[in-house]
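Q: Given only this backbone (168 positions), what sequence would you predict?
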């Protein structure tokens, strides 16, 4: 038998098509499965939204009894981490992001009718407001893995913009 049949372009295309179809069907046949241990803990917290995952840390906004609060979960230990000084009764968190060390969290919250941007340090247990210049209304944010640069979606004059902010 000669190798000419295998070198024919039509045969090669058919082989590639069958291989691609096989790979796609293998991906589709494997359903995505939640992580049961952490998901059970999250369900106990009530409603959850706006997750931010970085390394072993999951930050999210959890709601229970009509009140929402920021939570940080250590995925290796499968338990929440205390956040003293972060959740205040007079504010509502809107969006949160965590760095890879679980040390810094950036958040957008509503307080006294204003939407504000803030940075939380776990080691200092302090929340620092971050003023926007020029002013605007923050909507979404993402903290980089090192906790040093923040990307923020901001509404200014009816236009959405993204600012990159070097953090102190």
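A: Predicted residues:
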């Amino acid at each position: 038998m000669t190798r000419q049949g295998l070198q024919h372009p039509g045969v090669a295309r058919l082989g590639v098509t069958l291989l691609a179809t096989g790979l796609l069907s293998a991906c589709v046949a494997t359903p995505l499965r939640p992580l049961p241990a952490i998901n059970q803990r999250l369900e106990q917290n009530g409603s959850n939204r706006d997750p931010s995952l970085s390394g072993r840390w999951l930050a999210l906004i959890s709601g229970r009894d009509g009140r929402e609060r920021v939570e940080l979960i250590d995925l290796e230990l499968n338990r929440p981490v205390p956040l003293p000084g972060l959740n205040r009764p007079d504010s509502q968190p809107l969006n949160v992001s965590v760095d890879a060390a679980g040390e810094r969290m950036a958040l957008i919250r509503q307080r006294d009718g204003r939407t504000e941007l803030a940075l939380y340090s776990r080691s200092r247990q302090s929340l620092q407001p971050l003023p926007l210049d020029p002013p605007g209304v923050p909507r979404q944010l993402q903290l980089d893995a090192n906790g040093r640069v923040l990307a923020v979606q901001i509404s200014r004059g009816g236009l959405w913009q993204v600012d990159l902010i070097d953090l102190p």
